[in-house]
Records
---
Amino acid sequence: MSGYEKPTPRINPDNARFWESAHEGVLRLPRCKACRAWHWPPGPVCPDCFSDRIGWEEASGHGTVSTWTVVHKDWFPAFKADIPYAVAQIELAEGVCVTANIVDCPADELRVGLPVEVVFDRVTDTLTLPRFRPRRG
Amino acid sequence: MTEALRDKAAIVGIGTSRFGRHLPESQLALAAAAFKAALDDAGLERGDIDSLSIHIGWPLGVDYDQVAQAFGLEIGFVNQAWTHGRFVTGSLQTAAMAVACGMAEVVACVNVLSFTRERDILGGPHDFEGYRETGGTHAETPHYGLTAPAGGAALAMQRYMALYGTTSAELAAVPVALRAHARLNPKAVMQEPMSIADHQASRMVVDPLRLFDCCIVSDGAAVVLVTSAERARDLRQRPVYVAGMQGMKAGRDEFIFAPPGLGINQQSGVRAARPAARDLAVYGWADIPREAIQGLYTYDAFSPLVLFVLERFGFCAPGEAAAWVQDGCIGPGGALPVNTSGGLLSEAHVAGWNSLCEMVRQLRGEAGPRQIADARALQWATAWGDSVILRK
């Protein structure tokens, strides 16, 4: 963990599988085994049918930007060198919406509806953050 | 059923501390000043206060046990909310319900915020709620550098702009109108004139929100005293009645800083053309139609929230609020004045209680140069769907 000073996610029994999968380079999301609906954020029951039978399945990693912002204020000392940086919400092909950075994208190309794909950024020996970049090809 | 509570509770006293930035007083000292002012306003003694409704607790404000101990009160009913601005309405509603059902005699709603002393709570490494595993309450995701309530408001406004073509210069009409109100209020922290050009020149904080789209970071206290309508009739001030109420909305199609269905977090992205009946229940409870509302008061932590509340309560249709607020419509003397004391954007951030005190002043006819002519019915309403209608 040495040298990584940015905040890290709190990992609990409901979301641990997501972070373990990301560290393996796989975007895996909760999906109900009963009604087959994907959902986000991870939880103990399916918000659609209320089943306890939650599974984890690999997602496409593709989606579109549903909204975005560029942060100009140095709230976090550890992010100061990154300013301005982009954070977006991405509507994944599976129908759920996740929040993450957009990388490899000039600020003037950010827009609602931009097609993106996941990339995995191994930031420490134990943590990998999924981020998104404009879809190629 | 709700009509049974119409006009059963009343606000009988209001008091504020001074408002400012970097005030030397502790939170308890500011609260004491406001508490004494409210008792004096109502003609009550501290021994008359048997209940507390606390919106913002420690560290930003004060907790109920501190207040009771420090002010020498004998308290028999307490409500204290989570330390978030969003619970302003519920804190007042709980006080009104408690006196209406006889559980409380006189409730002191004690509200103090020392943002300049505790500003770490507004985002960054020390905003511990932002680390919530399912996402922060305003969509904070600290590991991606998204923090602070402003981040959530920015995500919502960015999508709103993309959907409806709204510009930052149109959004500027909101803070410009509230500054015009504030300049009629000597107590307001912000007294400098603000033009649309000034807004456009203010620095970008979290795109598309500029500095002047964000409320001021200030210190201050406000106390509102609530009792039953029967008791209110014997007190010093003409009562201001709680005519109607409706509660906060939550669910997968809700996001605290967006209208339902805008498409933030898990919102569907499908907006209804007009509000559903459950979203307008306050008018029926009060037996006062929206058309009779003479002034709107709202939690304006960020300028987009004013657009969103106007659409949420059907003052205009989805996507039309930015056009609707142009040309002074919500400013002094406008068709629907909003936050006539200057709101969180220009008076002070007392979590909306400064605006609730202003509603009482307006309904008593004590608002001086800001007075809404013959004010009879005013509405408090938020972008997250709760509301209280006050009448004289």
---
Amino acid sequence: MAYIIAGLFALIMGWMFFNQLVYFADNVQKLPLNMRHEYDFANQVIVKLFGSINFILLFMTPILAMKSFSEELRDGTIELYYSSPVSDLEVIFGKYFALITKGAFLISTTFILPIFLGKVNVSDYSFVISGYLGLWLNFCCFAALSMFASSLTKNQVLAAIIAFVLVLFSWMFAMFSQMSDNYLLSEIYRYLSVNHHFENLAKGKLILSDFIFYISFISFILVALRVRMKARRW
Amino acid sequence: MNAIEVEHISKVYGSRRVLDDISFIVKQESIHGFLGPNGAGKTTTMRIITELAKSSSGTVDIFSNGQKIHKTKLYQHIGFLLEEPPLYKDMTVLEYIRFVAKLRKIPQADIQNCIDYAIDALDLSAVVNRSIENLSKGYKQRVGIAQAIVHRPKILILDEPTVGLDPHSVKEMRNLILNLKKEHTILISSHLLHEMSLICDDITIISSGTILKTGSMASLKKDLANKQEIHLVFKKVNETFYTELKQLELFDSINISDCDEGVLVVLKPKDTGDYRNLLIKKSVELDVELLEISKKEFSLEDLFLEVTESHD
């Protein structure tokens, strides 16, 4: 399943990257020769590519994570963990690290694309590294939410749907921020949006508050998952 | 020392009382049968013993320890298979047992020995490299028991391990369970009462969350023997015969009713003695025409039905 998803993901990303390159080349052609060097390849292609990858992860992560707990609940294999000298946290972290490693593998299938940067004389690779870090951290947030959704039901499809709604919600906080007239509320919404923090990293900005947000967000969801597992047991 | 002491356990879900102050003892190195109709509370009791569920009140004492054992320690002592075996169907039998052995944190040096023990005890050597998905129900059940004993617990708890198996597999399972008795104290629930009577040393009968009977199989068999009946069919009987029977003072009850062939007399002896010869002699002596005489033994099924129905 993970290989199929990785294959599909690589295919979609390759196609998106190709389209962005073609679009970029068309736009450059329309510019006078002396202005062409000012048209920013990094912003027009790579940052947009990160946005596309992030968008696709929104759909892929719930599918990758949907069976993490719901299948164990359906088949009764969760009781193997309950009957073993392993703690709930060990089970959660084991599954979570496996999932975010899968996520790293999934994202790594797109590494081939920025290699093209070498061909267009881009010298600063730092925004690529921070962009990929942002993508992976976003995946970590989506994975935590999706695993939590998976612990809510024995039905994998339902788990994926719940996960998708939760992930979408975490994405759309930024939209709520634009809709709110209250400055304080608007700032809170903006801070709670996963995408707001990702945008900074995608532009190459490493800000401490973004990392604090990612760590607290993931920890909060994993603690909620632990509470859910404990409640389920009794 | 007892392996398990269940003391005054109750379990309430909302307003529904599933277990009502139940107590019983599982002796060490014995096979203890846990009988009851569907919904009697067998699985709930087993889940409480294995700490997969919390009781509303009461305690479970393992090895007369007198205090609550930490979960880690408890699962060193107890292995269990409740309801469906918890199998990863895409693994082979060997991969699965190895995975469970690692999950149970068996020291690396002992893992191979423990895996070999589980495979031998459940006679799985012929299928170790087969995918669990392709195994028959009987073998899946055996793999389920193998995961329960891989860490060599002293107590093994099995919930309906023979349910859904064909008679041949049931017989095989019976022999495997009898073999497991050498190393484990076993608490087993089942609907197959005859099977239970063949393998169990002790038995507990539960119905609607209440313990109706608990004790050794030997005492139960004695109870059963005491419940025997003698059926006599006469063309007709007279008052003298009835008086003579009463004067013998050997029977708890004498019931006389009409039947197709004449009169049916049902006698319940006070003890386990066989009085058929005596009754034949008496009927000849008193000149009553005896057509048929038979002894009706009480089976475990009869006892089970009697105690559960009388409780309902």
